[in-house]
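@channel sequence for tomorrow's demo:
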Amino acid sequence: MKTLLLMRHAKSSWDNNELSDFDRPLNSRGRRDAPRMGQLLAQEDLTPDLIVTSAARRAATTAELVALAAGYGGDIRYTRELYLADTDTYLELAREIASDVNRLLLVGHNPDMEALVSLLAGHEERMPTAALAHFRLAIDHWSALTEETGGELVALWRPKEL
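structure tokens (generated this afternoon):
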């Protein structure tokens, strides 16, 4: 049994039009919501074994703030692959994770994060900024994860609902 945590980056700022989309930072709401979701992970005893995030500034900062608030002590893996990625890319990346990792957190972007959550849940789910989905997967190795794996959507937390 594996636990997959999927999180959309927290709210980003559009204040500086000269920044590329990749380099946009979090706004004040994003800097508030990301640690709240990390605290939630700690409270739910869901601190990940590994965090993999899009290297885009807003996603990377989200992952760092979540990690700090959740008491995560490991390294964060940053990858450009999750920037503008499709669901297949998320699944391929997860399949490469070592089997000794039982709880994996992936931090990325919409619309693909929402599509992945909906795919695994078997029904549409909304993923606003900083939303966090908790899946229980009936697999023993990440390499077995496919589109058909499905999963039990244990919880989906949206910051405005907390």
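heads up for whoever presents: The chain has a mean pLDDT of 96.
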